[in-house]
Amino acid sequence: MIELYDVWKTYGNGVEALRGVSVKIKKGEFVYVVGPSGAGKSTFIKMLYREEKPSKGAIFVNGFNVDKIKERQIPMIRRTIGVVFQDFKLLPNLTAFENVAFALEVIETPKKQIARRVLEMLDQVGLKGKEHSKPNELSGGEQQRVSIARALVNNPAIIIADEPTGNLDPDTSWEIVRLLEDINYKGTTVIMATHNKDIVNRTKKRVLAFEGGKIARDERRGGYDDAN
User: I need a labelling partner for 37 at 20 to 30 A (CA). Which of 11, 30, 106, 117 fits?
Assistant: First the structure.
C-alpha cells in the first residue's frame, strides 16, 4: 500500500527533515507515527499525499510513484487518500452536509449520488441529524467527525490523520480514535501522527517512532517510547 525507499528531504534553509527513510505499510494496517517536534514525522505524513516532494529516494502510494508523477496527476492520488487535520479545516460558512459534499463536488459526482453518500457518511461517524449545522454550532469532537466524514466520502484506500485529537479533550479524543479503529476494521489503512502517549500505549498498534529525520523504532505492537 505504501513504500518508501531511501527517502531524503532537505528544505531550502538546509534543514534535513528526513534522512534515508525506508518503510513499507501493508493494506489494512493501523500505524501510529510518533516523535518529538522536528523529528520528521510531519514531513513524512505530507510526503504521502504529495504536499511535499522528496529530495532523493522513491515513494509509492496505492500503486502511484508519488515522487515522479506530474502535477496534473496529483488529484488522482488524493482521491485514494483521505486526510484528517488537527484544526479540522472545515469551511465555516457551509453546513456539515455541505462540507462533506464539497469533496464530491470537486470531482463532479452526480448530485443524487452526493446526497446519498454524504448522509451515509454522516450517519457512519455518528452525526445523523446534524447535517444542517455549521461548524460553529458543533463541538470540537463533532467538527472532527465532519472532517473524518469528508475524508471518507470518496471511499479512500488510506486515511491519513495528522494529530486528529490535538485540539480535543481526553474523552472526545478516545471517541475519535475508536471511530478510526472502526474505519480500519472495515479495511481502510489508517496512518495517524500523534503526540498522545496514552492513546498509543493503550491501543498497541504498529508504531513508527521518528528521531532526527530517521525511523528510530518500528514496532508491531509498540508504545510511545521504549519503556512500553
Answer: 30
Average of pLDDT values for 88-102?
94
In single-letter form, the type of residue at position 194 comes to T
Report the alpha-carbon distance of residue 3 to residue 65 in Å, rounded: 9
Strand partners, 137: none
Element (H, E) at 68: none
Nearby residues of 137 by Cβ (< 8 Å), 6 or more positions away:
none
**Which ranges constitute the DSSP H helices of the chain?**
41-48, 74-78, 96-105, 111-124, 140-152, 170-185, 197-203
Q: What is the pLDDT of residue 78?
A: 80
30, containing H or E segment: strand 30-34
Query: Which residue in the block uniquely carries the three cell numbers 504536499?
Result: 51
Q: Which domains, and CATH codes, for the chain? A: 1-72+156-228 (3.40.50.300), 89-154 (no CATH)
Global pTM? 0.91
Selected residue with higher pLDDT from 185 and 69: 185
Higher pLDDT, 74 or 205: 205
